[in-house]
Task: inverse folding
């Protein structure tokens, strides 16, 4: 008998809309694969979440949440307490991967190249004392490039000058690495491919990721065989160093000489046209087979 699966989607992060799309696509694929599927739009009320989830009587929880509270170890911790098996990475790997400075320290420890960076407060950034231009300002723990700003020689709109800046007083300021955007999906212990992302935007920002026509995916990436192999090696190494499980996606920049790890996404997009399902299909793994594998690999850390 096929398992009962409850898909967590929506939630209350800045990536709610993306999560709704991922959850809907995953639910459809799971249904196609023969599972009994329930969807749960996760509320902020933990008691209500607990009650609603138990009422759906799942054997496995499919985590299709994105952003804070969905991929930073928070929801994973609740599911661990409940003893409820769930897909993707556990609470520790999720928390470390989402904390950009902490993740970079893990990458450096195992020899993965990263761009030089500092942690700076509002006054330091506005005084132009963090790093020389060009540099990138990143919130400490957001996904999908939310809040990321590239500051170049001709940039006037510095972060923090906007009245609605919601990401706190401390940010990561990172040297801007020009070059090509590459991404590698890791399924268990194997890389699925290398995709080059092309966009007319200054970088692969939120709109480039999700707006129609915002980017183009080239699979397999047209890079030298040794760069292709190295990108895959670094992605698997990062996946293992963080303690990820299930599926992850590593984002890298290639400046023509060095591959730099930008981040590892432990809850990558899961629509049929998202980067991970694209790479899986190219590797011969259909979308229903991909979500089935994730369910079969699900567990909790209780």
Result:
């Amino acid at each position: 008998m096929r398992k009962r699966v409850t898909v967590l989607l929506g939630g209350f992060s800045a990536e709610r809309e993306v999560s709704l799309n991922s959850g809907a696509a995953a639910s459809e694929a799971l249904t196609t694969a023969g599972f009994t599927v329930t969807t749960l739009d996760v509320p902020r009320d933990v008691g209500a979440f607990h009650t609603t989830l138990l009422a759906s009587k799942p054997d496995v929880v499919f985590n299709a949440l994105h952003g804070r509270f969905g991929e930073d170890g928070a929801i994973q911790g609740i599911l661990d307490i409940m003893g409820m098996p769930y897909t993707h990475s556990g609470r520790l790997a999720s928390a470390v991967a989402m904390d950009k400075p902490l993740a970079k320290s893990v990458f450096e420890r195992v020899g993965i190249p990263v761009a030089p960076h500092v942690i700076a407060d509002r006054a330091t950034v506005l005084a132009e004392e963090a790093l020389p231009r060009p540099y990138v300002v990143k919130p400490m723990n957001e996904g999908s490039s939310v809040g990321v700003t590239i500051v170049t020689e001709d940039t006037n709109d510095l972060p923090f000058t906007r009245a609605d800046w919601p990401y706190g007083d401390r940010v990561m300021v990172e040297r801007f690495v020009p070059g090509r955007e590459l991404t590698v999906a890791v399924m268990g212990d194997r890389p699925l491919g290398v995709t080059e992302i092309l966009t007319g935007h200054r970088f692969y920002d939120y709109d480039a990721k999700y707006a129609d026509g915002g980017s183009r995916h080239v699979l397999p990436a047209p890079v030298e065989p040794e760069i292709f192999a190295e990108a895959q090696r670094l992605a698997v190494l990062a996946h293992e160093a963080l303690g990820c499980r299930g599926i992850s996606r590593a984002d890298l920049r290639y400046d023509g000489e060095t591959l730099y790890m930008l981040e590892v996404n432990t809850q990558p997009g899961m629509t049929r046209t998202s980067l991970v399902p694209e790479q899986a299909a190219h590797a011969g793994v259909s979308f229903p087979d991909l979500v089935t594998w994730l369910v079969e690999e699900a567990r909790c850390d209780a």
